Predict the structure.
Amino acid sequence: MRQYSADLTPPWKKPQPVPEVPADPGLVVEEPGTGFCGAVIRCEAGTVTLEDRFGKHRVFPLEPRGFLLEGRVVTLVRPSPSSGPARPSRTASGSVAVPGARARVARAGRIYVEGRHDAELVEKVWGDDLRIEGVVVEYLGGVDDLPSIVADFAPGPDARLGVLVDHLVPGSKEWRIAEAVTSEHALVVGHPYIDIWEAVKPASVGIDAWPRVPRGQDWKTGVCRALGWPSENTGAVWQAILARVGSYKDLEPELLGRVEELIDFVTA
C-alpha cells in the first residue's frame, strides 16, 4: 500500500528555508524583534552577543530565522572552531561599521562648520556615522554672520543646530559670537587651532610640528612657505593633507571630542 504524507499544507504556505550563517566575530546583523543592529562579538551556549556602533551590548538566543543579514532573514549558527577572534570592523571615526546600512532620511537638525576644508575633513572621518544618523553637514564660510544664520534656522526641539568654530578661545571675536547664539537648541563648540589643517597630527603629514606664522600673515600661505610647500595653491596642498588622513587616529583629540559632542547634541 502506498504511504501518503499527512502534511496537506500547500507548498506556497510552507515556510521557505533560509540560509544558515556562522556567527563569526565581526558579522553585522539585525535582530528584527528589537531592531538592534550590531556586530557579533561572542557566540556561546546557544546565544550570540552583539555590539552596536555606540559600544552597547545585547545578548540574543540563536533561534531559527532569528536575524536579518543585509535585509535577508537568516539563521545564525555557532561558528566553526577554526574561526578566529576577529574584531568588528570599524568606521574611520572608530564606530562599529554597519555594512549595507541605508542612509537615514535627513534630520531637520544640522551641523554647520566654518569652511569647506572643515566640511571635507568631517565627511572623511565621520561620513559613515552621519549618513546612518541622518545628519547633514554644511559650511558657513566664516562666523561673522552666524547670529543671523542661526536666527533664520530657528533651532527647536526637533531641529537642533550644532556649530563647529575654528580657533575658539576665550575673549576672541569668535568666542563672543558663540556666546551670543548658544541656546537650549543651538550648541556652538570649537577647537583651539587657527585653521582646521592644524587639527591633523603633524606626524600624519610627515612633519615635526605645524610652524608658527606671524600675526598679520595668511596662515595657510605662511605654513606652505615655511614648509616649502607650493603656497600659490593652498587648495591642492589641503587635498594632499586630507589624503593622509585615514581615520580618527590622524586627528588631534581637541577636534575629535568637539565633533562627537555635536553629533550627540543634534541626534539627542
